[in-house]
Write a structure and sequence with these properties.
The complex is a heterodimer of chains A (460) and B (627). Chain A has 460 residues and is of the alpha+beta class. Chain A is built from twelve helices and 30 strands. In chain A, the strands form seven sheets. Chain A has an eight-stranded mixed β-sheet. A six-stranded antiparallel β-barrel of chain A has the order 8-9-10-13-12-11. Chain A starts with a helix and ends with a strand. In chain B, strand 28 and strand 29 (555-559) form a beta hairpin. In chain B, helix 1 packs antiparallel against helix 2. Chain B contains nine helices and 34 strands. With 627 residues, chain B is of the alpha+beta class. The chains are: A alpha+beta (460), B alpha+beta (627).
Chain lengths: 460, 627
């Protein structure tokens, strides 16, 4: 489609690994070796000049080189101007490259994260949406389908459908954790106040990363930026200056009650996006779950840090000081709880934890619980017991059961494997189900035909 | 001092992207940037050297770091809010020496300590999450500064060094580091924001207190402040404002003058004087230069051509006394009532922010001899017709000559020639998304101009289906910036700030601000100079009226005579399917398709008539007269 942008995206993507391994070295040199402008235009376009030169350096002494190095040290105070991080403004190519990955979704925003049309946005952007049409800044509209959504972490994954064979969309590669440097320049793209609804023009704003990998309520792996973000930016991308996706903007913090930028924009970090992508892709339009702190775990803060009061189900001891959870420091009780909830839930998920116990640091793996999606689970079926048979009596309009095309009058033989003889059997089968759970019904139609239907519970 | 941790990365290939999955462990140090830059360069250099030479170079490097590097703002600590308090009002403080000397502002203290005298004990949260007790040592008299002492300072805290705040000027680079919304308590590190000193002014002694949520007074400080465009939120108060070299130039305050709504900084030299503290001040540092500074220099050159104008409100908005004040929120109010009152206060605060606009705004002097000034027409709410140009040498009466409402321009004429330089608009501004711009405004202050910087957010913003096109910036735009100049880094005046009126969807300083580019202004000026006003711009469209039935495509209910649609043979009763290739799924979709074109363009329109699809070429025209 847009070949330079797609190409740039791929190049940056391929480069992520290199960036994680080599970028400090390369960045340090790039400022001196290239004009600042060129450095900005091809943030990942060049191999490390240093790496290339290391071999000739086997000579022990090289006066001109060392004079140059000393000069560079002394000049380093002036090098800041050349550093991309403290400049206002970007070049045209960068802006176009990142704008090409932006899509309007509902009244919010989204970003293309793969050449075949995967789009990330916020759960709260698509939650009440019937029509998942996405619109690019060039006005092109595409239908899309919901692959999966994370109501707790506020991420939703769409896939653009009906793309022509061989079309590769420009996309944003995920930023590696190393790109999340506090103070680094960031760029947000969005549709603040719906201003772009009329003119297809997204809004480009710039700022710096204020805090990285923090916990804010349900945003358990978040980053904070001061690029202006307003209602309508939700679901939109936050980029670093290499065009990598640092996060998905989702919240602002204000104290006045006005829903207007305060310089505190919270985005879901690329690390969490990347971790949830595989689950979201396989969710078949349903929900994915977060991990949760072990049942019965009680924590408190004291002068030293976060202390375990009661270990509950966790293999911890009372008095342990929590140091890290899932690899991130447990600074406060709220943060510790958030960190326990920061991973995608799979039945066998273990959360790595380090604790200080009797002046010894111990690494442990804590089996994760599953976080309940808040709300009342809803299937929309009313049943009736007639002559030892459980029959569907009523189906709510616009309910999961109706979506699954159940028919009033059908007999329910089994619910999640439990044989139904009496009403109480039905209640037992559904009582413990949570939002996002499956309810598999074995049905017998009026004509005696047997079939099995899966219903996914959602909040009412 | 230096602790950069190498972070191991697990790699996994997902769709050709190598991404850190599963989530990568490791946390990030919070070095402000110059430090990171120096350290990175240093490390690279050392890595580049043969082993035998590394040690001397390391020494040189460290000395350079010591000269240049920012102290890690581990010297910013949190003062947590009282948990019982419904409205959190914690704040931050800064550590000034290893003996545990900490200074903050009274507004940063938790409520229980707000009026506390010397000897009062309160909790301090240090970076990393450790807690300590601090004792109030002294309270200032001329400022709201408070000094505290932490008795058992742990290792690893680096006190902040003082910068020379007396020399701070508009445009200086600046960072805030604080505890916004409890960031330091939750994350173990201060949250950072970047900006510049956007203004210098004095909060008058008789100035009413600016209030926040729940009617809480935000600051009792009255005196000289530096206004900044970096993020300032609840929790930043008492925290650090650092210059580009990482030296402390002041304590962040939530107090502002009524007419200004950006965060402020109480200069550190005033705090030191008030608390009778004598600490070394870092002078003679190399100022950090950047493209931002190029913008600021350009802004300073343009500033003399800006005037401050006050227009009389003959009716309507502008009188803060006309807004009814909600009853006080007191403890005895029952919970449900509290929530209602809370909302009322929020609305009241909102109104104060948005409607208290009986103030002067900026105007650009475009012809000093004739006394012509250009400003934003949205400032004329309240049917203003006359006012005054406020100059340092005195005021000159002025009248509104003409307005162009679609572009939000108003031409003013002063009664006599203006003793100021003129603004020269760039004839062909080369605006591009992402380009850096400075927004320059006038305000009553010691050197009288304000400057915020940002980037161009877009250049093709439309607010209606007409040919009025705006550009947009994320520079913080205060009400007083209305009519202010947008300047690029080469010093060209590329536009004027408009549309920041109380009815706009976006708020002041929301990071959304529209401006008219200089070429558009140049096209509109002749008509304005003739004294001809424009109330409405011609609609650019096909010339059909549409009616949408449920979920379907729109039916054409009427065709205006003499328009493109009429001449192309479109008839009432046709169903509109496509406009210029775009499906007509909504009114907005049709508008979107049309405003991509100018009057005179021909586009394909697909209609359904009697079950058959017809493709008709229609010329887009501008209709509905300019008036």
């Amino acid at each position: 489609m847009d070949s330079p942008a797609a190409c740039g995206g791929e190049r940056a993507a391929c480069d992520v690994r290199r960036a994680t391994l080599e970028s400090p070295r390369r960045n340090g040199i790039a400022c001196f070796q290239e004009t600042p402008h060129a450095a900005r235009r091809t943030p990942h376009g060049c191999l490390s000049p240093l790496a290339a030169r290391r071999t000739p350096h086997s000579k022990l002494f090289n006066p001109p080189m060392h004079a140059l190095i000393l000069a560079l040290f002394l000049g380093s105070s002036f090098a800041f101007a050349a550093d991309e991080q403290i400049d206002r403004g970007v070049d045209r190519a960068f802006a176009q490259r990142v704008l090409a990955t932006y899509v309007f979704v509902g009244s919010g925003s989204g970003v293309v994260v793969s050449p075949d049309g995967l789009v990330l946005t916020n759960h709260h952007v698509i939650d009440d949406l019937d029509d998942f049409t996405v619109r690019f800044a060039n006005g092109a509209t595409h239908p899309s389908e919901l692959l999966g959504t994370d109501p707790v972490g506020d991420i939703a994954l769409l896939r653009i459908t009906g793309l022509k064979e061989g079309v590769k969309l420009p996309f944003a590669p995920f930023a590696p954790v190393e790109a999340m440097r506090v103070g680094a320049e960031v760029v947000a793209i969005g549709n603040p106040f719906g201003l772009g609804d009329l003119d297809d023009t997204p809004t480009f704003t710039a700022g710096v990363l204020s805090a990285a990998r923090i916990v804010r309520g349900d945003y358990s792996d978040a980053i904070q930026g001061d690029a202006p973000v307003n209602p309508g930016n939700s679901g939109g991308p936050l980029f670093d200056r290499a065009g990598q996706l640092l996060g998905i903007n989702g919240q602002i913090r204000t104290v006045t009650g006005l829903r207007v930028n305060s310089g505190i924009g919270l985005a879901i970090a690329s690390t969490q996006l990347a971790a949830f992508m595989p689950l979201l892709e396989k969710a078949e339009g349903g929900y994915v779950h977060h991990t949760f702190q072990p049942k019965g775990l009680e924590l408190k803060s004291d002068n030293a840090g976060v202390i375990v009061v009661k270990p509950g189900d966790a293999p911890l001891s009372a008095g342990d000081q929590l140091l890290t959870i899932a690899g991130r420091p447990a600074v406060s009780v709220d943060t510790a709880r958030g960190l326990f909830a920061s991973l995608p839930f799979r039945p066998d998920t273990l959360i790595p934890v380090t604790v200080r116990r009797m002046d010894q640091e111990i690494a442990l793996n804590v089996p994760a619980a599953r976080q309940t999606i808040p709300g009342r689970p809803y299937h929309g079926i009313e049943i009736d017991e007639r002559g030892g048979r459980i029959l569907i009596d009523h189906l709510d309009d616009d309910s999961p059961a109706q979506d699954a095309k159940l028919v009033v009058g059908e007999q329910v033989l089994k619910a999640n494997g439990r044989e139904l003889k009496k009403k109480i059997d039905w209640l037992k089968a559904v009582v413990a189900l949570e939002i996002g759970d499956r309810l598999v019904l074995d049905l017998s139609g009026k004509d005696g035909a047997l079939r099995s239907v899966t219903i996914r519970l959602r909040p009412r | 001092m230096i602790c950069v941790r190498a972070v191991p990365l697990a790699g996994d290939v997902v769709r050709g992207c190598r991404i850190p999955y599963p989530p990568v462990t490791g946390s990030y140090t919070t070095f402000p940037l110059p430090f990171q830059g120096v350290w990175r360069h240093t490390r690279d250099m050392i890595l580049a050297l043969p082993a035998r030479l590394s040690a001397p170079v390391l020494l040189v490097a460290l000395s350079v770091c010591a000269l240049q590097a920012l102290e890690v703002p581990s010297g910013v600590v949190a003062l947590p809010a009282d948990r019982a308090q419904e409205v959190p009002c914690g704040g931050a403080a800064v550590v000034l020496n290893l003996d545990g000397l900490v200074v903050t502002l009274a507004e940063a203290l938790p409520d229980s300590a707000a009026k506390a005298g010397e000897g009062f004990q309160l909790t301090v949260v240090l970076p990393g999450g450790q807690r300590r007790q601090a004792t109030v040592v002294k309270r200032g008299t001329t400022t709201t500064a408070v000094s505290l002492r932490i008795t058992d300072m742990p290792a690893g805290i680096t006190p902040l060094r003082l910068g020379d705040s007396a020399l701070a000027k508009v445009g200086d680079n600046l960072w805030t580091a604080g505890n916004s919304f409890g960031a330091l308590e939750e994350d173990g590190a201060a949250a950072m924001s970047r900006g510049i000193v956007s203004g210098r002014y004095t909060i008058p002694a008789d100035s009413p207190t600016v209030r926040g949520r729940g009617g809480r007074g935000l600051s009792e400080y009255r005196g000289d402040v530096l206004e900044i465009d970096a993020a300032v939120n609840d929790g930043n108060q008492g925290g650090a404002a650092l210059d580009g070299n990482g030296n402390l130039i002041g304590l962040v305050s939530l107090g502002t003058a009524r007419s200004r709504r950006l965060g402020t900084v109480v200069p550190i030299h005033l705090v030191m004087k008030d608390l009778a503290l004598d600490l070394p001040v870092v002078r003679d540092v190399v100022p950090v230069d950047s493209r931002t500074q190029a913008l600021v220099r350009a802004a300073a050159k343009v500033a003399p051509g800006l005037a401050l104008v006050y227009l009389e409100r003959t009716n309507g908005l502008g009188n803060p006394q006309s807004v009814p004040r909600p009853p006080r929120l007191v403890e005895e109010v029952p919970k449900h009532e509290r929530e209602r009152l809370q909302r009322w206060w929020d609305a009241y605060y909102h109104q104060q922010q948005m409607f208290y606009t009986d103030q002067a705004v900026t105007a650009l002097v475009i012809d000093a001899k004739k006394g012509l000034l250009l400003t934003a027409a949205s400032h004329l709410h309240g049917d203003s017709e006359r006012g005054e140009v406020l100059l340092p040498s005195g005021s000159i009466p002025c009248t509104v000559l003409a307005t162009n409402l679609p572009l939000d321009l108003a031409l003013l004429k002063a009664d006599r020639a203006l003793p100021t330089p003129e603004i020269a608009f760039a004839t062909s501004p080369q605006l591009a998304v992402g380009q850096g711009v400075a927004l320059v405004g006038r305000h009553v202050g010691d050197n009288g101009f304000t400057c915020t910087t940002g980037v161009v957010s877009t250049t093709t913003r439309r607010t209606a289906q007409n040919d009025a096109v705006f550009a947009q910036t994320d520079a913080m735009a205060n009400y007083g910036s209305l009519g202010g100049a947008l300047v690029d880094s080469l010093g060209a005046v590329v536009g004027m700030l408009v549309m920041l009126n109380p009815e706009a969807d976006w708020g002041l300083n929301s990071g959304v601000a529209l401006f008219v580019d200089s070429a558009t202004i140049a096209r509109a000026l002749p008509r304005l100079s003739d004294g001809t006003s424009t109330k409405r711009a011609p609609i650019v469209g096909l010339g059909v009226q549409l009616k949408y039935l449920d979920g379907g495509r729109p039916t054409i209910t009427g065709v205006t005579k003499g328009t493109g649609a009429d001449e192309a043979g479109i008839k009432a009763g046709d169903i509109l399917l496509k406009v210029d290739g775009f499906d007509t799924t909504s009114h907005m979709a049709v508008s979107r398709a049309l405003i991509r074109h100018r009057a005179g363009d021909k586009i394909d329109v697909v209609v359904e008539r009697a079950g058959k699809e017809l493709t008709l070429p229609v010329e887009i025209r501008a209709f509905g007269d300019e008036m």
